[in-house]
Design goal:
0% strand; elongated
Length: 169
């Protein structure tokens, strides 16, 4: 299996994982939050928008995974073109692990961040106070998305850094 094929496979798995997470977590929580107060047109629009964002993310990750691998240059920087599971180097294992962790962190944090931003704007419109806890939650979600993105796109640098520390010890 080539490195490119392996990363395409991983991205497709992330796409399936994001669809399952959205169907069983994000969409019900958005509907529940919307039904918690007064039913309004904004609630319906937001729920439909979240559905289309999730469907678009699923489509992108599942059907355009090869384009994402080329765009993010994920298959670059490896010493070999093929993955031999019998003779895999520690740096490659670390790189794959960092890639998976970054992807999962992003997939789990993006829907939460979008929901918190929406409810912050909706609370601002109706005159509800934006508490320090809400600000903290948005900040944490934003940092999770940023950290996930950085780990996802810079997995080779992080792997080299972590592997260098292991070699020094």
């Amino acid at each position: 299996m080539t490195k490119r094929d392996f990363f395409i496979l991983l991205i497709k798995v992330f796409g399936l994982y994001s669809a399952v997470t959205a169907i069983f977590g994000v969409l019900p929580s958005n509907v529940m939050f919307g039904m918690n107060g007064v039913i309004s047109i904004e609630t319906y629009i937001w729920t439909v928008a979240v559905f289309f964002i999730v469907a678009g993310l699923f489509w992108l990750l599942t059907f355009k995974a090869d384009k994402l691998v080329d765009l993010l240059k994920l298959h670059k920087g490896f010493s070999d073109e093929r993955i031999e599971f019998g003779d895999i180097k520690s740096e490659n294992i670390i790189k794959i692990g960092v890639f998976i962790i970054g992807g999962l962190l992003m997939i789990n944090s993006i829907p939460r961040l979008l929901s918190q931003i929406f409810w912050a704007f909706k609370g601002e419109v109706i005159g509800q106070e934006f508490t320090a806890r809400d600000k903290f939650n948005i900040g944490v979600s934003g940092l999770n998305v940023l950290l996930g993105y950085l780990l996802f796109t810079n997995s080779d640098r992080v792997a080299r850094m972590l592997n260098k520390k292991n070699n020094d010890e």
